[in-house]
Amino acid sequence: MVQLSSDWNNEAYVSLHLVQTMLEMADLPRKSSYSHWIPEFKVKIPKLTANGQIVWTQKEVDFLVEDLSRYINFLVEIKTAKTRLDAEARLQLETYLKYSNTRFGILIDPFSVEIYEYTQGFATLKCKDNIENPEQIQPVANFVRSFLDTVKMRTIAIHTSKGGVGKTTLVVNIAYELAKLGNRVLVIDLDDQAHATLSLGVNKADEFDKASTLEEFDKVLDSFQDRKEVIEFLKDYDTKSFNYKEYIQISPINQIFRKTKSFGKIDVLPSSYKTTDVALANLGGIREKRLDKALRQSGIANDYDYVVIDTPPSATTIASNGLYAAQYVVIPSQMEYLSVYGIRTPIGRAREVQDEMGKRGAILGIVPMMTEKNVKIHTTIKQSVEKRFQGITILPEIKRATAVGQASQARQPISLFAEHNKGAAEVAKQFSALTQEIVLRINQIESSVGM
Length: 451
Known about the structure:
This protein is an alpha/beta fold. It has helices at 11-25, 87-100, 138-151, 167-180, 195-199, 205-210, 214-222, 230-236, 254-259, 290-297, 317-325, 337-341, 344-357, 376-388, 402-409, 414-417, 425-449; strands spanning 35-48, 54-67, 72-78, 104-108, 112-119, 122-130, 154-158, 184-189, 249-250, 265-269, 306-310, 328-334, 362-371, 398-399. It has two domains: 6-151, tt1808, chain A (Alpha-Beta Complex); 154-449, P-loop containing nucleotide triphosphate hydrolases (Rossmann fold, 3-Layer(aba) Sandwich). Helices cover 39% and strands 22% of the residues. Helix 1 packs across helix 3 and helix 4 (167-180) crosses helix 17. It is globular.
């Protein structure tokens, strides 16, 4: 260990020459479209007085860092070469985490860095590292960045400007394949037709099936009137009493994961006929960014590894909410002239978001949907797409198969349907390959740009 000058006994010096530089080198700028620091972040802490009364005192944490690219907030508490990290400092951080409702906290001095996670009433040490020389900051930045990458939540919008190209089929099956890999997945349905919600079994699909008259059908629809779903989520997220768990439904598919003792799950933020721009008309601020802000502020990143967003095939405020919240965009398209003509629109929308928001709207690729091997026009148009949209990846295709419609009618992801239908096995492999390629593309993008 190097001999340090007395400067390192000063907290302001440690902050400026170690911590702030470390955050910048970890690709967390002081103020940008995707991250910013709040120095001297104030936390209200209860204190018991001598006469048994509770009074609230205000304490200051050195930094709250909002990492919007990962949907993570964390506290940073700084100690010096003289004060060091000790039991008192760890208890202090635990208290700050508890009363600020922040999941992660970093304790750092010139000799070591420790990262804690606050869950179930306790701060648990997740990892730590020694600092050999506080003037060599890159290793510390790499350590912090590597940890944050393991706990980030990724958001993917499935977006197109044309209906009927298999968008919702893609949402449901990508979500299932991600969950099969052990990921905790949230599907956000922004389409007022609510097909993703129905397919995942949380929109009273069984009751719709049993309805034999228009009156019975309308009765099921009316039951959604007072339900908290995605439109209420967008309207309520900035209220004091907001609890995101009240808006989320658990998919019955999770029973399969529990039986196999998998850590994966699929939950749904459901939609219905209520999911319209009119419902947001009287809200202040930028209505197109409410979903992004809600995901950042609600704590959802504590519970999910991936969010898959089903956007409506239109240029509405609701659709824009999906794009502004999406770190990544996947564009499905049939290899037919009218469908391909419409690819330019979602590409343009995604790039507008990327220009404005920084680490949002990265296009993972185009998915050729419902292709047929012996149909020459499909191959011709696919080649045309590759030439016209150079620089955009053509992802693994999904071939036309009757099993896809059968699985959809059974309200099952194709891989689950294939377990008792041999004819679905081939297309199930295609969805698996597509999902693995999406994960690979995300990892490549993040490793190349230091996200």
